[in-house]
Amino acid sequence: MTIYKDSVVRIKDLIKDKNYDYVEYRIPSKESNNGDFAGAFRVEDGKIISIDGDSYNEEERVYAAEEWFYNKHPALTILVCED
Question: Which of 1, 60, 64, 67 has the highest count of CB atoms within 10 angstroms of its CB?
Fold first, then answer.
């Protein structure tokens, strides 16, 4: 996972002009370095599309992120910053 502790990276920076079939949204946790699962969305042409009914703010700061593939489909895990 890439950690962005010395720079300001927002969700919109990571998804600009991209497509992800699945984005795992995680929040900070005292129990896990990878955070706790808090939701999921997909990205089409850089736009967030909720797959769980929640809303997501593309301006939210990202602490860490990792691209990966699920059955050859692009995916992303993001761990947002505590505010």
Answer: 64
Indicate if the alpha-carbon torsion angle 71, 75, 79, 83 is positive or negative. Answer: negative
DSSP string covering 5-41: TTS--BHHHHHTT--EEEEEEEE--SS-TT-EEEEEE
- Which helix (DSSP H) or strand (DSSP E) does residue 67 occupy? strand 62-70
Instruction: Report the amino acid identity of residue 10.
Output: R
pTM of the shown model:
0.92
- β-strand pairing of 62-70 with 47-50: unpaired
Question: DSSP assignment, residue 1?
Answer: -
